[in-house]
């Protein structure tokens, strides 16, 4: 699995840097609030604008990539991230940062959806192995992001933003040099394709599962720094531990559980354990030790979920993988966009326990949706040649209907 072409490693490296952006701002949420006289709900909009724009922009990623090619789409996304992060670092108000984070989300959408499809199509070995490689990059980026954010944030809240711009510049150079020119798709993707893909009950069920799960995930990510009330370095270290746990289970544990118990059974149990973790955080919100421990423990469950649900999406419906990724991401980032703002609002106007209860309820609902969808996902653990044949047949039907 680890013997891959240089192009795959180039995209994987850029993915690490791109995913750093998710957790990078976590340690500086409270410093930004303190320095710019903002409330938790206002600061949490840094996540909301980023995720909302990313989700909507996922609908155009296939359209852009199929017309200008994956490599140019990747580079365009990276350049937009550089601009968004750098301008956020130069902002003077929370509103300006929120706006530039939205631009950052657009760049991330162009990059992430294309990166996953590029790694899956270019990597040696099975789809499952390619996704594990992608999730390893995701896990490493998420793990390092809070640590870098904490170190740079202890100097200035602007530091992490400028740090992302610098690292993304390196990623642009690496991608431009090592990734060969990629041809445009045989058939140009349309804006309607992701919505057509969601007609498949299996893909729609997984997407809704991910939406609800992400609601709980981003409640933990965006709101926990406020009841923890620690320094940027302290928050960074806690979420670094969370990221390490996430990376370990996504690469090492998830495939083993999948082989032994099956994809769907593992995912349902995993979501129930994530629900219990958020419930514990809701009960013992006033204990920093419990919150910090639960953050790291949650990373174990998030890692398993990320790997297996991404693989499930790639196999859930007989559609092109780029289209499946765009459709799924459009739905799931809706939960990621709403959760941070709502958690901050509930924490301000009710109490600090309620956001975690709401997050736990959302993840519990996601387990229920996935369990109800299982008849449409019975093929998930089938051999890949059979799945590839279904995808090829669907592509032939689509091309035939377009001609």
TrEMBL record:
Keywords on record: Membrane, Transmembrane, Transmembrane helix
Span of the signal peptide: none
Subcellular location field: Cell membrane
TM region positions: 7-25, 45-66, 73-90, 102-120, 132-155, 161-181, 202-223, 235-254, 266-284, 290-310, 322-342, 354-372
Membrane topology, as annotated: Multi-pass membrane protein
One GO CC term, this protein: plasma membrane
SUPFAM superfamilies to which the protein is assigned, alphabetical: MFS general substrate transporter
Major facilitator superfamily (MFS) profile domain mapped to chain residues: 7-378
A Pfam family reported for this protein in Swiss-Prot or TrEMBL: MFS_1
InterPro entries in the cross-refs: MFS, MFS_dom, MFS_trans_sf, Tet-R_TetA/multi-R_MdtG-like, YfmO-like
Record-linked PANTHER family: MULTIDRUG EFFLUX PROTEIN YFMO (PTHR43683)
Protein name per Swiss-Prot or TrEMBL: MFS transporter
Organism: Mycolicibacterium poriferae
